[in-house]
Design goal:
Length: 368
């Protein structure tokens, strides 16, 4: 079930009661319900969440780590996932039937994940098979819907994370001579480039008009990149890097590989969210950093490292707008309905879809 189908099932308008509560009242209510439910409740919080929410998280991390922690936490009957829709889906796929996964605000989607729906993907696959025969293996970033993960699992492929993308692309090329990489073209391009695949060997599939964007003989194509992107990371630009180099000549620039190839190429380092956090944690006191990733996380890193000079690579960057839909009022609303025995904002992935999606996840985990 995608986010739009889920939204159709019921009202998701926050009741005025929660809008009118003070911050202190909201925080006290979260503490009260957490204390009451104890180990029956587990609240995973993604790195990009607001501080008002992350303060109540039982664990923080990236989407896959949080889903795996949810899977490992057998005592938790209720998992309130403070992230976005595809993350809660992954948690539901990995947890047991007796565990229930909730999303505090069903409007918390992911623009990147929504750039590849199952209908577009099935059409694309049919046309790509006509062009290339059985030479293609699909890979999907974990930042994708359960339906896309299921499609990839059904066709012999696997999921990837920003941490293990290179390893998984290498694995894929051991299976087939070409890959289709969904849904983030930039992570796919940066990963393949790092493995020695030239830009001239990469094509882009445009799902809007069902065309392959490529100049040259198609037999030279090794990587087919889905035309999708992260709306946050694509907003870091070459001009941002030039400004940082001019203003802070000694500053190191570290970015996420969801940024464009040009930005990654001009940066000093590029890596996953955890890589960025670990790099700053290990950096010397007094070192200077410009970070190209989501603003809530950058601001949190700045607070945690007063001994270092840290800025956002793009000073005008906004936090992830869909991630920011999870706020304190929605968290309290979700927790109160659970406490009252209701199943509001429940995330439930169809069994057949979950089964194939788990195949894709398992193939990755075996390689990791």
């Amino acid at each position: 079930m995608n986010i739009f189908q889920t939204l159709e099932k019921g009202s998701n308008v926050l009741p005025d009661k929660y809008r009118n509560m003070s911050t202190e009242e909201l925080e006290n209510q979260v503490k009260s319900i957490k204390n009451k439910l104890g180990k029956k409740l587990f609240i995973p919080g993604h790195h990009y969440q607001k501080d008002e929410v992350i303060q109540f998280a039982d664990a923080t991390g990236d989407s896959l780590k949080l889903a795996q922690l949810s899977e490992d936490n057998k005592e938790a009957e209720h998992i309130v996932f403070c992230g976005v829709h595809f993350m809660a889906e992954t948690a539901d796929i990995l947890t047991t039937e007796s565990q229930k996964v909730y999303l505090p605000d069903m409007r918390a989607g992911c623009s990147m994940a929504d750039m590849a729906d199952i209908y577009q993907t099935e059409r694309a696959w049919e046309k790509l098979i006509e062009l290339f025969g059985e030479t293609i293996l699909p890979l999907t970033y974990v930042n994708s819907t359960a339906a896309i993960k299921s499609f990839v699992g059904e066709h012999g492929g696997a999921t990837v994370t920003s941490s293990n993308a290179e390893k998984m692309v290498q694995w894929a090329f051991e299976q087939k001579s070409r890959i289709l990489f969904l849904p983030d073209q930039h992570l796919g391009r940066n990963t393949a480039y790092n493995l020695g695949i030239s830009l001239e060997e990469m094509a882009v599939w445009n799902p809007i008009n069902d065309t392959l964007e490529y100049e040259g003989p198609i037999e030279n194509i090794k990587v087919i990149l889905w035309k999708g992107h992260c709306s946050v990371h694509e907003n870091f630009t070459v001009a941002n890097i030039e400004d940082a180099r001019r203003t802070y000549p000694d500053m190191k620039i570290i970015v996420h590989p969801e940024c464009t190839r040009e930005v990654v190429a001009l940066s000093d380092m590029a890596g996953s969210t955890n890589y960025i956090i670990d790099t700053i944690n290990k950096a010397e006191k007094g070192s200077s950093w410009a970070i190209g990733t989501e603003m809530n996380l950058v601001n949190r890193i700045i607070k945690q490292h007063p001994d270092k000079q840290i800025i956002s690579l793009n000073p005008h960057m906004c936090p992830c707008l869909t991630m920011n839909r999870i706020d304190l009022p929605h968290l309290v609303w979700c927790l109160e309905t659970i406490d009252q025995g209701e199943e509001h904002n429940l995330i439930k992935v169809d069994k057949a879809i979950a089964s194939n999606a788990k195949l894709a996840l398992d193939r990755m985990l075996i390689q990791s």
